[in-house]
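Lay summary. Proteins are chains of building blocks that fold into shapes, and those shapes determine what they do. In this project we predict the shape from the chain. Here is one chain we studied, written as its sequence of building blocks.
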Amino acid sequence: MIIVILEPQDYSRAAIKTYRSLGVVYFWPALKGRKKRLVEKTADILVVRLKYQLDRTFLARFPKLRMIATPTTGLNHIDLEEARDRYIEIISLRGHTSFLSQIPSTAEETMGLIFDLMRNLPWAFEDVKAGYWRRDLWKGHQLLGKTIGFFGCGRLAKIVARYAQAFGMRAIGYDPYVSKRDLARAGIEKVGLSYLLRHADIVSLHVLLTDKTHNLMQEKHFKMMKRAAYFVNTARAEIVAHDALVTALKRKWIAGAAIDVMWDERGDGSHLKHDPLWTYAKRHTNLIIVPHVGGATYEAMQVTEDFIADLCKRYIRRNA
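And here is the predicted shape, written in a compact code that computers can read:
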């Protein structure tokens, strides 16, 4: 069996060992010329993080592919229709709730983005680097007494709610698939979407991207938010209608936003050039954009890579 790891930098040694127990492992960046073409034509398993878009054109380079392994819950970097048509199995973190409950990295990042937004920390630091010490220019807001609203109330929202409550915040949430009782156990008051948008000081998006949730949040939703409210997205950019957020910022429907994700992400950053959010962020001090680093901690990446490798091994043994 031929296994190709597309992004081997800092990859878990234990996971690599597991893959080597299944066959020959190649690191894609190290392959060149004829050797690279031969490995691509014979590869059985592709192991990917988020750098590459596994679209139809990319997957065509791997005609014998049987499996794609990705230590992510989101799958929008993979052409799922093409994978289905070619009977390629997708091994991911999606649905492994018990395992994921032990991994708080994205929830921690969400709180970090909230701190940065409400206290103007990134821009205050840039100001200091420029040689200024303008304390009054960067006054912010404390979290105590503020209301955080969760649009989507799964695993991550519940973890963030615990963190927020430690700072004296009220937590409210909208999710038609989670019961009032379940949310109450997490300290979240279940409310309607309209109520959430009108009353939250921070709206934090935690929705899984599917065909049904694509473009779920639109301009009309931002219009309903408080003018002093902030929006945080550590889920997927495609859940928000394209250009809706930049419109909300330009028209001052909201006070600011922090996002960990963007539309049509590319590992080389080429997606930034024509994105109005990137242009806006360079000229304003109320939008933070970070490069999809929610789950990018050494600890989280190691355990998820190990977990996915073990899942692959179990799947292959069951279907041998």
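What the prediction tells us: The longest strand covers residues 147-151.
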